[in-house]
Amino acid sequence: MSGKDNKKRLECPNIEVNKEDCTCGSEKCPRRGFCCECIENHRSKGQLPACLRDLV
């Protein structure tokens, strides 16, 4: 999580499925399976996460 607004997120109900489907190349990424956190992180850097790169 970015922490910029100290947002409190609920536990992700899809974490296990997300981890199975995640195309991230980093197995040790702390955001692996937490799609909303991953997308927020990459957007803040002007990047797309691996799962969205095929869409552009």
Give the gist of this structure.
The protein is mainly α and 56 residues long. The chain has helices at residues 15-21, 35-44, 50-53.
Whole-number mean pLDDT = 87
Largest sheet features: none
Structural class: mainly alpha
Q: Strand tally, please?
A: 0
**Gap between N and C termini, in Å?**
25 Å
Low-pLDDT segments:
none
Q: Nearest-angstrom radius of gyration?
A: 11 Å
> Approximately what portion of the residues adopt beta-strand conformation?
under 5%
N-to-C series of helices and strands: HHH
**Percent helix among the residues?**
25-40%
| SS field, number of helical segments | 3
| Shape by Cα distribution | globular
Q: Secondary-structure blueprint of this entry?
A:
Blueprint: H1 15-21, H2 35-44, H3 50-53
What does it look like?
There is one protein chain. With 56 residues, the protein is mostly helical. The chain has a domain at 31-56. The chain contains three helices and no strands. It has helices at 15-21, 35-44, 50-53. It is globular and about 30 Å long. The N and C termini lie far apart (25 Å). The mean pLDDT is 87.
